[in-house]
Amino acid sequence: MTTRDTAAPPEVGSLPLVPRNPLPLWRLVQLVRRLDTGQEVIRDAGGPITRIQLGPKTLMPPIVAVMSPAGMRDVLGRNDASSDRCIIHEQVQEMAGDSLWVLPNEQWR
Questions:
Q1: Is 97 left (phi over 0), alpha (psi -120 to 50) or beta?
Q2: Bridge partners, residue 63, by sequence
Q3: Of 15, 17, 21, residue with least CA distance to 41
Q4: Would 100 be classed as within a structural domain?
Q5: Are 57 and 81 in contact (CB under 8 A)?
Q6: Mind listing the pLDDT tens digit for each residue in 72-105?
Q7: 109 inside domain
Q8: How many domains does the chain have?
Q9: pTM of the full structure
Q10: Most buried in the list 4, 65, 78, 104, measured by CB within 10 Å?
Q11: Are 66 and 76 in contact (CB under 8 A)?
């Protein structure tokens, strides 16, 4: 066992914020709608982990986009307390079935 395995995870509120994507709002909205190439442009501008704010925080919470295989494994490989599943995930699961996006972490490991 390493120190990383035995150390208690830090409180989420004590962690630094993910850097905000530098693209202007109008460009982010365009790119989010482009499922084929939009993600690449967002990643190139903001890096493999970037924060996207599409409106006021009271109306639209920030989105943290993780766009690297190692980063996705790190996010999805943690326990359920580190990622939220909401009603949207439940609705997608009902319509499309099980996938990494909708299953709680324990079920897909």
A1: left
A2: 52
A3: 21
A4: no
A5: no
A6: 877 777 665 656 666 676 777 777 777 656 666 5
A7: no
A8: 1
A9: 0.62
A10: 65
A11: no
